[in-house]
# Entry
Amino acid sequence: MTPSSADEPGSSRPRADTASSGDLQGGNVRAGWPTRRMTAIVAGSLAIGSVAALVLVFAPFIPVTESAITGALLCGIAIGWAMLVLLSTRLTDQPQHWAAVPALFFGVSGLLLIMFGSSVDEALGWVWPPLLLALAIWVITRVHRRMPSRSGRALLFVVCGVLIISSIGGGYQRVGAAADANAFPAPGRLIDVGGHRMHLNCTGSGSPTVILEPGGGEMSSNMGWIAPAVAGRTRVCVYDRSGRGWSEPAPTGAPQDGSRIATDLHSLLHRAGVTGPYVLAGHSFGGLYVRVFAAQYPHEVAGLVLIDSTAAKPPARPNMPTPVVRTDGVLARTSTLISVSARLGLARVTGLTDFSSLPPRSRDELRANAARASTIRSTIDEYAGAGAAVQEAAALRDVGARPLIVLTATVGNADDWFEAQDRLARLSTNSAHRVVPGASHEALVGEREYAEITSQAILDVVTAVRDHTQLTR
# Structure
């Protein structure tokens, strides 16, 4: 039979690839695999990297710190790139050796963060965004030239797009954080409370000293209307809980429940030389913490103001232990993982919340604080410890005749909320329960009109302490 023109010497048509029956029977088909096999290898490698990252983040041998969790993520990503090299080399005749470069980049970076922690983290802070951008662009060129699968190229281009966005976001966050540090230095003092420093800002003069306790997820700047108003009549101090505002995060392993928060505040006040007894004013969750403080240090409390305070909840059974706040469990690792998003500038974008009802300086400080990873983690950890805090606050059953004012907002609160506020007022024989019409939960501190009512309530308790008088409604 006459051979076809495709088989003749000099023919311009490519010779068709063939495989011998021995090759097919023996399974030696590497050279004949279609491009969809490469797509499967790319997709599988990316999936393996994603799973490896999650496994490492929740592995018990990885410390629960932002640096270590970030390092675990990077090591997982490195495994994905390494699998692309390995699988493409073993299963195809078009190995993707170039993928060893991102595998090495992410792997080395991750190991350094896990082993050396915050020292390496700080050193890499300004370096990693431009390096990641350069790496992503380099990978795009290699994928375009060497990846035979169109679908595989599309998957890797998506990954490179994510890397480019991450590098831009990381640079944006780093520049923004540096600008925030220069624009908003701590207005008060940073005091060592044993393992970390906490921010305390005291203004005004006179006694008793008022201590303002912000609500859940909030910081000293949330008291921007109240602190100056109270400072005109007596000394007032506002502080930031651990990991919030200008306060440093608590040491790894320290649970952020009501008892720990009260202990930190007590250490902060004593080390700063602020003597009691104090008038404690707590908003929302802050109302729980001032009650825990009053239960732990009753002789250092002269009066209380509970500002739409969260109600306490006694244990279901007598002598039932308080829930233990885990600092190394799944929730703690999850909160740390979520907080890592702040490194990519995500929190800076979502942190552009409207705080326009507060004074301009306080508003800008809050926006800057919302962009920080430590704020995200401390807020999540605070709500994780809420179950313990509501039980710890129930230990305060009465405060005798010490002055107590309970303020309750009317907007957005259910009927049982008002009943719980009535019960709070019964903690003292010298108390007043004041319902504030038109005020929402946050407006009692965040809107000037209602913050003036709150400030006056605090000053009424101060006057009752000074003059030993009964409160009026």
